[in-house]
Amino acid sequence: MKTVLPLGRGLFDKYISAPAYKVQTDHIDHCLSTRRSLNEKKETGADILQWTMDQGKAGNLDEKEVKSMARTMLGAGSKTTANSMTSATALLLQQPETLAKLRKELDEAFPHLSLPLPLEKLKRLPYLDAVLHETMRLRADNKEEGHWGKPVMLNKNAFMPFSLGTRDCIGKTFAWNELRVVIGHIVRRFDLEAGFDVSEIEGADFMTWQVKRPDGLPVKMRPRTT
Ligand code: HEM
């Protein structure tokens, strides 16, 4: 069985503040107890939480390991995707012609503004894919030397946002889909206005590139009417 415990142990001890750690712990406890109550009523989920809990029941993981797996999923799967969405939005605001082209593709694919944009169709939009790939090429992972040792891959233009090999990102398909859904909906449904100087966005790498401005990247969003 492939567990993700080494990542969880190393990263979380070093990088998560005590209050954030407590919020995560409470949330994980809540999720586990809610799922356990559902399981008692014979309701199961078809997801990784259920799989992890089942491994616990089968004796393959102890309670501490189940919680650590849940923490890893939460940590590895939230800020990474959120930062990538922020990067995509910032880059689109920096390049209005790209934003306009993306919007045109979305408008043509989804003529009805009020209807949800199904993932199956979002997955087949070449320009949306290109925008997201370019965002990830420019802004994804470059490992921080202090924690990971000397980087093996020095060419920052190489495209491997989810790493490679047996320990690559297990959430990559999910992450691509989240990016398609969120960026697709935002661009199709909202007019965006940058509340920051688009020519200067300070950021730094940690798993994904992240903004280093004290007020984040404020963006005004107005619902489109047409
Ligand atoms: C844009 C979003 C994401 C990026 C850029 C990203 C990037 C990465 C990278 C580069 C690694 C490999 C780290 C290494 O070399 O050791 C990794 C591992 C991992 N990622 Fe992601 N990730 C993203 C989203 C997610 C999501 C959504 C999940 C879960 C729902 C997730 C779960 C994991 C886990 C559990 C590992 C460790 C895998 C292992 O050690 O076997 N990631 N991710």
Automatic annotation (TrEMBL):
Keyword Heme: yes
InterPro entries on file: Cyt_P450, Cyt_P450_CS, Cyt_P450_E_grp-I, Cyt_P450_sf, Cytochrome_P450_monoxygenase
Cofactor: heme
Pfam families, alphabetized: p450
Keywords: Heme, Iron, Metal-binding, Monooxygenase, Oxidoreductase
Molecular-function GO term, any one: iron ion binding
Keyword Metal-binding: yes
Family, per entry: Belongs to the cytochrome P450 family.
Protein name: Cytochrome P450
